[in-house]
Amino acid sequence: MTDTLMPFDDVLAAFDPALGLEVHVELNTASKMFCGCPAVFGGEPNAGVCPTCLGLPGAMPVVNGKAVESAIRIGLALNCDIAEWCRFARKNYFYPDMPKNFQTSQYDEPICFDGWMDVDVDGETYRVEIERAHMEEDTGKSLHVGGATGRIHGADYSLVDYNRAGIPLIEIVTRPITGAGEKAPEVAKAYVAQLRELIVALGVSEARMDQGNLRADVNLSLAPKGSGVLGTRTETKNVNSFRSVERAVRYEMQRHAAILSGGGTILQETRHWHEDTGITTSGREKSDAEDYRYFPEPDLVPVAPSREWVDELRGTLPENPTVRRSRLQAEWGFSDLEMRDTVGAGALGLVEETIAEGAAPQAARKWWLGELARRSNEDGVDLVDLPITPAQVARIQALVDDRTVNDKLARQVFEGVLAGEGSPDEVVAARGLAVVSDDGALGAAVDTAIAANPDVADKIREGKVAAAGALIGAVMKEMRGQADAGRVRELILEKLA
Ligand SMILES: [Zn+2]
């Protein structure tokens, strides 16, 4: 079944979009939220479990203090109020990957609430209001075996791995974001990208979207233009890259608009995002007030962070993102447009790390926004998920700077590193990419070029130095682009002097 979509411009002529984003951040604490098991997902299935995270009768949970600290720091960085006193709550529902049959979460008493984050898109600032950031635990993971799709339908049997059950999560929920209009898809993407940047700066999570450390659910509704009334929303689950956040918003806007303008109604439901086809499909119907029978968790004491502690944690926050961007722009000497493009591409942190590894600011920007942005578009992955590190980018630039390779050869080094052929130096060696600047080899190639182009050689002898370009080109061709062009020019002029 294919959805009917309305052209994006037509959507904007008739409707105002409202966004809502729910982002789950998996904390990088050493142990789980309520027990001492290692908070490491993966490895031998069901090896990192104990009676508490398996929900066995009589097992008692204890709150992980480090996770509370991370939650407060995230809340402070998002300009939230921090609760003086709050409780955990049981969210009751049955699911095979949830051994207790309830998830320990927070309900009406989140630890952080009423915050905001300013998001920059194309030089404009959108204030995203944060409703809450609360603590909860992750579930286990089901594996459906035997089917073609990995989904439960068509599978022969299912396995459950509880290693992830109980890993601490912070769920950050925005208030409805209205007024973004045509920029709604970009605002959604920029919010998640900037939130990730903040989480990385706080050092509280690995924050890899492709690894599921950071998971975004995207809510979208449309209101008839100018009405100010929020429409029925859909919630697209677990969108796992910045790029997909933008695409999912755009897709849902176009799908909603086609249904509404055809006289239909939007079903309030969760949707699944399909990375490969770029569409969403129906998940399950969801009412506004699902009855999870929340009640305060009786086995855990309330969390009551002292104001002294909160103030102390405030002192550990990283630089405010807006201040940081202005500082970096000044340090790097970027124009407003260069800075905007860098932020927009989600490359700010990558460029910063590349510069810290020794590359010049313009060189770092050039590679991330040029060669690597092109690759990330072609491969449909975010820049940060490309298999290359800022240190490797800086190393390739160092090879250009010391004239081991030229710009053109450097592109082949990038290609090799991205293809998993090893470090930049290993790729240069294995592919034989180093520029030849040895006079013996260059001299022979220059002689050949002169012999093959006597008329050009005559012009140079007569003083038309500009003609040397044709000979340099011939030498480069002969040496498959690996000649040191500067030295070749010198040799040509010496020989024809
Ligand atoms: Zn455990």
Summarize this entry quickly:
This protein has helices at residues 8-14, 65-77, 184-202, 242-261, 307-314, 321-332, 336-344, 348-356, 361-369, 371-379, 390-401, 407-418, 424-431, 439-452, 454-461, 468-478, 485-495, and strands at residues 15-26, 81-82, 89-92, 102-105, 112-121, 124-137, 141-145, 157-161, 168-174, 214-224, 234-239, 269-274, 279-285, 295-296. The chain is an alpha+beta fold.
In words, what does this structure look like?
There is one protein chain. A nine-stranded mixed sheet has the order 2-5-6-9-1-10-11-12-13. The chain has a three-stranded antiparallel sheet with strand order 4-3-14, with no helix packed on it. Strands 7-8 form a two-stranded antiparallel ribbon. It contains 17 helices and 14 strands. α3 (184-202) runs antiparallel to α4 (242-261), α8 (348-356) crosses α9 and α14 (439-452) crosses α16. It is of the alpha+beta class and 497 residues long. It is 38% helix and 19% strand. α4 (242-261) links the parallel β11 (234-239) and β12. The radius of gyration is 28 Å and the shape is elongated. It binds zinc ion.
